[in-house]
Write a structure and sequence with these properties.
oxidoreductase, Dimeric_a/b-barrel, monooxygenase activity, four-stranded antiparallel β-sheet, AI-2_Isomerase_LsrG, 3 helices, ABM_dom, alpha+beta
Length: about 100
Amino acid sequence: MIHVIAIITAKPGLRAQVLEAFQANREAVLAEKGCIEYGAAVDAAGMPTSKGSFGPDTFVVVERWASVADLQAHAVAPHMVAYGAKTKEWTASRMIHVLDPV
């Protein structure tokens, strides 16, 4: 199994727009071979901000895949290519961490 943590930062004020596109694409990703988990999260409401807070323009995608091959196929799936093209101008940065469980 492979774990993925993707930190997506939208351009100022555009996080909701990027998250809407993410949610619209989520069902297609969950239907992919090997997708175990795929969801977005934001800083918890009511918690004080800290050095570890992501802020109002960032969300984190938590993913689990059955194999590296499944993750690689996900990256080039037509719906992911379309999602990337749609959100490219709304996104300031993406940082993707691919991790092995221990």
